[in-house]
């Protein structure tokens, strides 16, 4: 499962410190973190966030209109069908000389469903059945041909 966190500076000034924290405790109960975090700010790659326990935290500055994107993935464990993966992200931002801004948290809930099997094993009885149908069809044609002669 892939996650993308997006933060945008919609204000009219630079944000000196932006902190985005992603609480993965409701995800990592049923999944394994793949350690593949990538972060871009304004389209350029920057240092990845740190994972302490079950919390992923990134901090940095954002210029006016700039966007930060944090992407990562987890692998869902077997046998957890019906479980809900709950992910909660919070953030704070501080403009120069201003008070810290704390937007409301953002959460996603993803229920683990049974996936359909694709591929699988080829049934060994299928070629035998096809061969029997071909032999039966050939015998029927020969019988009809000999009956009309």
Task: Describe what you observe in this structure.
- This protein is an alpha+beta fold.
- It has one domain: Immunoglobulin-like, CATH 2.60.40.740.
- 19% of the residues lie in helices and 43% in strands.
- The strands form 2 sheets. Strands 1, 3, 4, 5 and 8 form a 5-stranded antiparallel sheet that branches.
- A hairpin with a 2-residue loop joins strand 4 (38-41) and strand 5 (44-46).
- The mean pLDDT is 88.
Which secondary structure elements does this structure contain, and how are they paired or packed?
Elements: E1 2-8, E2 15-23, H1 25-28, E3 31-33, E4 38-41, E5 44-46, E6 50-52, E7 55-62, E8 67-76, E9 84-94, E10 106-111, H2 125-148
Antiparallel strand pairs: 1-8, 2-7, 2-9, 3-8, 4-5, 4-8, 6-7, 9-10
Question: Which features does this protein show?
Answer:
single chain; 149 residues; alpha+beta; Immunoglobulin-like; five-stranded antiparallel sheet; 2 helices; 10 strands; elongated
Distance between the termini: 68 Å
Number of helices: 2
Q: Approximately how much beta-strand content do the residues carry?
A: 35-45%
Query: Roughly what is the average pLDDT, rounded to an integer?
Result: 88
Q: In a few lines, what is going on in this structure?
A:
This protein is of the alpha+beta class.
């Amino acid at each position: 499962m892939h996650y993308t966190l997006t933060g945008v500076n919609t204000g009219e000034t630079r944000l000196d410190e932006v902190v985005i924290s992603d609480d993965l405790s409701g995800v990592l109960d049923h999944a394994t973190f793949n350690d593949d975090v990538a972060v871009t700010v304004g389209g350029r790659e920057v240092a990845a966030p740190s994972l302490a326990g079950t919390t992923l935290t990134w901090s940095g500055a954002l210029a006016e209109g700039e966007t930060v994107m944090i992407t990562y993935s987890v692998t869902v464990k077997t046998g957890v069908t019906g479980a809900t993966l709950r992910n909660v992200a919070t953030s704070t931002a501080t403009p120069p000389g201003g008070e810290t801004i704390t937007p409301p948290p953002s959460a996603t809930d993803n229920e683990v469903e049974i996936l359909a099997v694709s591929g699988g094993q080829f049934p060994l009885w299928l070629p035998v059945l096809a061969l029997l149908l071909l032999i039966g069809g050939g015998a029927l044609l020969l019988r009809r041909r000999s009956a009309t002669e």
